[in-house]
């Protein structure tokens, strides 16, 4: 742990009371939503300004203290875990929306702004921030940038990366950089902004971000369709994608729906039971588009791809249908699931899922598997639920074997071991399944330039 005198020096860099060392704070701020690590930071520090963040980084370099960034702590990769005496830098107090530019459709904000806060601000001003996911009510913009968060609207709007117009960062050396200066067109060499997006705080800390906004969508409408098997979902996607500009295309299995129905607070979409369900969303801005959607639904039924379905007729029904998908992660968290966030190109999804499902079913027939994900962009979420009577340590040990098999299939299909959750600690030892040794060497070299003393979130993404 860090010497007391060094911690006292840290306290002089921020406002009184903004360095915490009590056991409850260390426990709360030293972890994210992963459950297999024991948090053990030395202190939590709460800066309020860019200058304070810079002072903290310079202090950390002087004393060779490791720093771990902390936002909403909703991550699933262990990127915000501090378990080796690090100092956690929480951005909870850097939570201001600083400037709206209606002409440019941009908003400048601090990293601690909660995703939902930004979405609501955009809506209040007649605009739209489209990056959305189940944790939007607690995740923070800085964390979204650090992991290049995706979510449920990627098929139409892309990842967080697509919405970052400019960044102000404090590098691991303590330098302040303004990256891209919010420009749409900027052909002046390397775009260092892109390096910080998805870097999980390993190069430096984002202290301001200018995020792009879009026009507000009109009359969003949702359909939930029951399919006879997973293979039928892909022709359904092709059929609707060819007729409509989809804003989302999700899927989930019957096991996932059963867990949602057991909650008792979400209406069942329709009485017919099917093995898999597709959820799609589009803008029904006129009757012609709505009629096209119904005609496409009827075509899918005639082809045998869809057994039953429902289309939202109100904002409340739209929200209820989305709960079938958005509540899944929270609902199954009771069973301490082994979670995997993997992706391939969309055309390879059926064969990819079938191979993984076959391996898990063969080797762990007693484990319940819940599938769901963003099928429209090739991102699958594999969730293996822990049996009630199996100790957590034994369960995760068994799942470590699953990891190797799953990632070998990912490598075979030229996919990604982490589609949107980042690498952190959870995927660090498997990075070679998605990145070549030469690529990893280049990544390490980039980190050494920005963080020569190795103080920025060390041990995440890769070991140095």
Automatic annotation (TrEMBL):
GO biological process terms, semicolon-separated: respiratory electron transport chain
EC class: oxidoreductase
Catalyzed reactions: (R)-2-hydroxyglutarate + A = 2-oxoglutarate + AH2
Annotated EC: 1.1.99.39
Annotated GO MF terms: (R)-2-hydroxyglutarate dehydrogenase activity; FAD binding; metal ion binding
InterPro entries, per database record: FAD-bd_oxidored_4_C (IPR004113), FAD-bd_PCMH (IPR016166), FAD-bd_PCMH-like_sf (IPR036318), FAD-bd_PCMH_sub1 (IPR016167), FAD-bd_PCMH_sub2 (IPR016169), FAD-linked_Oxase-like_C (IPR016164), FAD-oxidored/transferase_4 (IPR051264), Oxid_FAD_bind_N (IPR006094)
Matches recorded under SUPFAM superfamilies: FAD-binding/transporter-associated domain-like, FAD-linked oxidases, C-terminal domain
PROSITE patterns named in the record: FAD_PCMH
Names of the cofactor(s): FAD
Top-level taxon: Bacteria
Positions of the FAD-binding PCMH-type domain: 37-216
Pfam families: FAD-oxidase_C (PF02913), FAD_binding_4 (PF01565)
Keyword terms of this UniProt record: FAD, Flavoprotein, Metal-binding, Oxidoreductase, Zinc
Nucleotide-binding found in the keyword field: no
PANTHER family: D-2-HYDROXYGLUTARATE DEHYDROGENASE, MITOCHONDRIAL
Quaternary assembly: Homodimer.
Similarity field: Belongs to the FAD-binding oxidoreductase/transferase type 4 family.
The protein's name in its UniProt record: D-2-hydroxyglutarate dehydrogenase
Record organism: Pseudomonas abietaniphila
């Amino acid at each position: 742990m860090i010497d007391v005198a060094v911690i006292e020096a840290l306290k002089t860099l921020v406002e009184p009371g903004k360095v915490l060392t009590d056991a409850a704070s260390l426990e709360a701020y030293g972890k994210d939503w992963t459950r297999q690590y024991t948090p053990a930071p030395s202190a939590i520090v709460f800066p309020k300004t860019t200058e304070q963040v810079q002072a903290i980084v310079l202090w950390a370099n002087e004393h060779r203290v490791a720093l771990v960034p902390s936002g909403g702590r909703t991550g699933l990769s262990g990127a915000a875990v501090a378990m080796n005496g690090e100092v956690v830098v929480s951005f909870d107090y850097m939570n201001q929306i600083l400037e709206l530019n209606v002409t440019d459709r941009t908003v400048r904000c601090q990293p601690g702004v909660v995703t939902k806060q930004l979405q609501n601000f955009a809506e209040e001003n007649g605009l739209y921030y489209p990056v959305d996911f189940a944790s939007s009510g607690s995740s923070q913009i800085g964390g979204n940038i650090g992991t290049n968060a995706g979510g449920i609207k990627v098929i139409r709007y892309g990842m967080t990366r697509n919405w970052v117009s400019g960044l102000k960062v404090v590098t691991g050396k303590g330098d302040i950089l303004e990256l891209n200066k919010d420009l749409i067109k900027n052909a002046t060499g390397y775009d260092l902004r892109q390096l910080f997006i998805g870097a999980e705080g390993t190069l430096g800390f984002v202290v301001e971000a200018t995020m792009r906004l879009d026009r507000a969508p009109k009359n969003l409408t949702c359909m939930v369709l029951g399919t006879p098997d997973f293979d039928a979902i892909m022709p359904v996607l092709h059929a609707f994608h060819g007729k409509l500009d989809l804003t989302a295309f999700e899927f989930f299995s019957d096991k996932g729906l059963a867990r949602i129905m057991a909650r008792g607070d979400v209406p069942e979409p329709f009485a017919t039971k099917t093995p898999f369900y597709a959820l799609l969303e589009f803008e029904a801005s006129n009757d012609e588009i709505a009629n096209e959607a119904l005609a496409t639904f009827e075509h899918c039924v005639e082809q045998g791809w869809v057994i039953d379905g429902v289309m939202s007729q109100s904002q409340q029904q739209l929200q209820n249908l989305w709960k079938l998908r958005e509540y899944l992660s929270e609902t199954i968290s009771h069973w301490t699931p082994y979670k995997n966030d993997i992706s391939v190109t969309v055309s390879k999804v059926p064969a990819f899922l079938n191979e993984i499902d076959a391996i898990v079913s063969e080797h762990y027939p007693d484990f319940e598997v819940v599938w769901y994900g963003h099928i429209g962009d090739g991102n699958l979420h594999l969730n293996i639920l822990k049996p009630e009577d199996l100790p957590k340590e034994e369960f995760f040990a068994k799942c470590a074997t699953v990891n190797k098999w799953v990632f070998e299939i990912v490598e075979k299909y030229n996919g990604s071991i982490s589609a949107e959750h980042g690498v952190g600690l959870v995927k660090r030892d498997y990075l070679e399944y998605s990145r070549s040794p030469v690529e990893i060497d280049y990544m390490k070299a980039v980190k050494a330039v920005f963080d020569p003393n190795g103080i920025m979130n060390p041990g995440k993404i890769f070991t140095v």
